[in-house]
Amino acid sequence: MIYNNPSTLWANIFIDEISKMGVSHACISPGSRSTPMTYALAKSTIKSHVILDERSSAFFAIGLAKQLKQPVLLVCTSGTASANYYPAIMEASNSNIPIIVITTDRPHELRNSGANQTTDQVKMFGSNVKMFIDVAPPEQNPNEKMIRYIKTIASKAYCVSITSGMGPVHLNFPLRKPLDPLTSINPFDYAPSHTPLLTCYPGTLEASSDQLNELVNIISLNPKGLIICGPEPLGNSYVEEIIEFSNKRNYPILADPSSGLRFTSFEKEIITTYDHFLSNTDLYDKLRPDVIFYFGREVTSKYLLQFLNYEYPNKIIRIQINDVDKIIDSSLNLTHYYQSNPRSLLNKLNSSISEYGGEDNWFDHWINLENQVIKIISDASLPSNFEGRIINRIMSIIPDASDLYIGNSSPIRYVDQFSYDVSNSLFIHTNRGLSGIDGNIAIALGIASAKEKPMNAIVGDLTLLHDSNSLQIAKQNNIPITIFLINNNGGGIFHRLPVSELDDKNLFEEFFLTPQKIDFEHLAKAHGFSYDLISDKHDLNSIDMSSRLKIIEFRTDAGESNKVLNELREEIRLNISI
C-alpha cells in the first residue's frame, strides 16, 4: 500500500504491529499533531474510544485494562495534552495496570525554539513508567532496518507493559508535517506482514522446591495464622485456593472489600467486621498470630493496619506473596517475600500441607468476635440517613452477579465496615493504587465498556464532581451506569481525621470539607442522565431502575454519620469479649 508521507507511514507501521501483538482497544483525544496515529487507528482493527478530556480518557483506559488484562493504547497531541495523563499514569504504575502511552510531539528541530504547542515531553512521566522511548522521527525513504526498528518498539512496549509486574510505558513520537494522509511528500510503498516481528511470552514466577519446603515448615510450626487479603487491581484469580488454604489450616481470612473474596459465591467463612473490633487494643494479646500471610495491596481498614503493625515483644513471621515485582510493606515489618504467582504457589502449598488437627480455639476467637459485632450492629437503632446503613442497603438491592464500583474516601470505608450481611455475589471494582478521587467515574465506565455489562457505582459528591467530564463518556458510548451518590456536601472523610477537632469550625469547613453546594439534578440532566433523590431508605425499592444512565442521590450529614459510627464503636468496645 502507498503511504503518502513519512509521518503517515510511521504511524501505520506502529499501529499495524501493535495490533498484531494483541492490543485491541485505544483511547484517543482529538488533536492535530496526533493526526497520523488517529487516522491509522481509525483504519485498524483496534477498537477506538474517542474521549475529549485527556484525563478522563486515561482513567477510562485504566478501566479497560483492568478488565481486559491487556495493554490499552492512549493517544494524544503535543503540548499540555499529555500532562493531563499524569494522574492516571501514576495510578497505573502503583496498581500495575498495562497502559501504552503514545504522546505525539514536534520534531527535534522545533524543540527549545519557542514553537507553538512545543514543550519538553522527554521522560515527562519520570519513574512512573516502566520504559520510555523517544522514537526516531519518520524517515522519507526508510530502509528495512528502520522499519524493523518501529516494529520492535511496538513489540517492546507491549512486552514490557505485561511482564515482571504489569505497568505503563511511554512512547514519544515526534512527527513532521504533513500530518494528514492526503498530502503526498515522498510516498512509500509498504506491505504489512501477516505476523508480528516479535512474539512475547510472559512467564510465570514459580517458587523453587526449597522455597516451598521452607513455607511448609513455617506453616507446620505455626498453628495461629492469619490470611490478609488486600485489594487486587486486576481481580483475584486465586480466591478458591485461598479459601482451601484457610480451611486446611484453620487460618482466618480477613478480606478487604476489593480483594475478590468478600462477595464471592464460594462457600467460605470470611471475617468482615475487623475494623470495628480491632479498634479495641485490649484484644490484641489474645489475637496475636504466629504467622501472617499477605496477598494483594495494603488493606483499607485503619484499625486492621493498626493491629497488623502492632509491636509485640516476640517477632511475628510476616509473609508476602505476589508477582507484581513490588514489596508492599508500609510497616517495614515484613520478614519473608516470595515473588511468585500466588495461585500456583497456593496450589502447591495446599497439596503439600496437612490438615490442622489441633484442639485450640484460634479460629473460633475470630468467628465469635465477628458474630458479636454483627449482633450489636443488627440490634442498634441506626438512623435512616446514617451513611453506613445507606451503603449497606444499596449493596443489598443490587442484583446478584452485578458489577459494583466503590469510590474512595468515605464510601469504601463504609463498605468495609457495613457489608457484613450482604449475601449477593458481586464483582467489586476500586481504585486503591493511590486512592485518589480523580478518574473514578471514567475507570468504572472503562470496566463496563470492556465487560459490555451495566455498572453500578457508589461515590461521594466530590468524587462525582471532580470527574463529571466523564459522564459524557457514558452518554457518548451508551454505557449503562447507575451512580449512587452519597452527597454529604464536601469531603466527609475529614470528619474521621484529627483535623476535625479544630476549634475554628469555619476554617475546618472552608479548607478541609470544601462544600460545593452543587445541584446534581441539573448536572445529571446536562449529561443526559435521569435523576432521583432518596429522602428515606424505603424509597429505594420504588426507584425505576430501567434507565441506562441514572444518578440516585442520598443527602447526608457526614459529621452526624461519624458521630453515629463512633458511638457504635464504643458500644462494641464495651460489649465484646474473647
Give a structural overview.
The protein is α/β, with parallel strands linked by helices and about 575 residues long. It folds into 3 domains: about 1-190, Thiamin diphosphate (ThDP)-binding fold, Pyr/PP domains (Rossmann fold), CATH 3.40.50; about 210-370, Rossmann fold, CATH 3.40.50; about 380-575, Rossmann fold. Helix 1 (about 5-20) packs across helix 5 (about 145-160), helix 12 (about 385-395) crosses helix 13 and helix 14 packs parallel to helix 16. The model has no long low-confidence stretch (mean pLDDT about 95). The longest helix is centred in the N-terminal third of the chain and has 19 residues, at about 145-160. The radius of gyration is 26 Å and the shape is globular. It has helices at about 5-20, 35-40, 55-70, 85-95, 145-160, 210-220, 240-250, 275, 300-310, 340-350, 360-380, 385-395, 410-420, 440-450, 460-465, 470-475, 505-515, 520-525, 560-575, and strands at about 1-5, 25-30, 45-50, 70-75, 100-105, 130-135, 170-175, 190, 225-230, 255, 270, 290-295, 315-320, 335-340, 405, 425-430, 455-460, 480-485, 530-535, 550-555. The chain contains 19 helices and 20 strands.
